[in-house]
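Curious: why this fold?
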Amino acid sequence: MIEMAMLKEDLVTANRILSHHNVVDSFGHVSVRNPENPAHYFLSRARAPNCVELGDITEFDYQGNVIGHEPGKPYSERFIHGSVYEARPEVMAVVHNHSPNVVPFTVQTKKKMRPIMHMCAPIGNDIPTWDIADKFGTTNLLVTSVDMGRDLACCLGHQRVALMRGHGSVVTGKSLREVVFLSIYMELNAEMLIKAYQLGEGDVTFLSDGEVNANAAGRAGFTLERGWENWCKETERPYFPQTWNMGPGFSKSDA
């Protein structure tokens, strides 16, 4: 099990990486479940992700209550994280973002967001869209209560990703590395998919369900570490190596 100090450092790093890749800007957040107490999770205080430091990391329970030291005002949308962890015991990390090329897919129904590139395959072909107005009427679209968070988690179901109408998305992963990897490549996939739609001639060929499953099954330490090490270098953050294991169907010679 990763040491707690390293886990918190990696959470700071995750914030910096997501900011560097324009998945978050002054807003958006990433959390990680506490491996020593799975009913708690770590999330920064309310601060721009690129400014997050180790002292900003705060511990919360599922209901969004601060546990122990409170370094400052918490994010108003922390209920997204707690509700997903509560509903999905296997999820170890969550990102909420307003990724700019993803948001257009939250507000229209004819052209769905689906994976067209193998690096983004694990988002899957069945991505739900949550509309806060369906249950909560006219709001500012922010998830500011446990009830809202649980409704979003219900829409997410067992998928990796859910879109949020007129707002952004929630992304889940089995580790910080995985959720950061998926968030970055979902933004890139959305950008490329918009371009593919704009070409205007012919239908877009999406990854098949079999291709999605094969890529998701093969996504292991070697792929995640390769990205994480590079992104740590880009953001001048410390790199704490984890297992560089191979996923099924992949070898060290694969791209």
DSSP finds seven helices and eight strands in the chain. The two ends are 28 Å apart (CA to CA). Residues 247-251 have pLDDT under 50 and may be disordered. The first strand starts at residue 29 and ends at 33.
